[in-house]
Known about the structure:
alpha/beta, six-stranded mixed beta sheet, 6 strands
Amino acid sequence: xxxxxxxxxxxxxxxxxxxxxxxxxxxxxxxxxxxxxxxxxxxxxxxxxxxxxxxxxxxxxxxxxxxxxxxxxxxxxxxxxxxxxxxxxxxxxxxxxxxxxxxxxxxxxxxxxxxxxxxxxxxxxxxxxxxxxxxxxxxxxxxxxxxxxxxxxxxxxxxxxxxxxxxxxxxxxxxxxxxxxxxxxxxxxxxxxxxxxxxxxxxxxxxxxxxxxxxxxxxxxxxxxxxxxxxxxxxxxxxxxx
Length: 242
């Protein structure tokens, strides 16, 4: 049986191969910081909101976020200057903004749709879960960030590239469109819908990248990629002793 990779694993390896080694080879988990917990709780909130919508129910998105935050924040590594209660209030405002400006327009067909791609010449399969597929076949990925994305960032995002490959495998056709729905954590929250597309050359480049990443992992090629993100990394002490 082949081992599998996800886009999350690929991104971590590309960000820092040694971080991937600690997390996925050694199985060492570290507590998430508040930004990761915020993104996770927002994601779970939106997922459950649409699950209820597909059942014909209208969920209170603020109550959903409060529930998921109360669970996720228990295992969060907050900074000394951070106030979990204030962050919870911020999260409530974020999902409120999303509900007001985006959720009312969404007609979900499928939520959290799983796929697995198998390749003859790659040691790993690619597993993924598509956040949302709308009734017209548009793929939507949800993001929560402290800054607005550039169009270049959206066009390079390998998550959506993998989603298009997964959708094609499941449906024998390409999606009607690709979109990132962003919630931006400004003082006044913003909700953005950002469209993009993937051509065959983009899919081919992604598959080439997957091949090289899987080959490096198979050959145990791990090293630190030192940079600005190191200060926020939960593995920094282990890295320094490497």
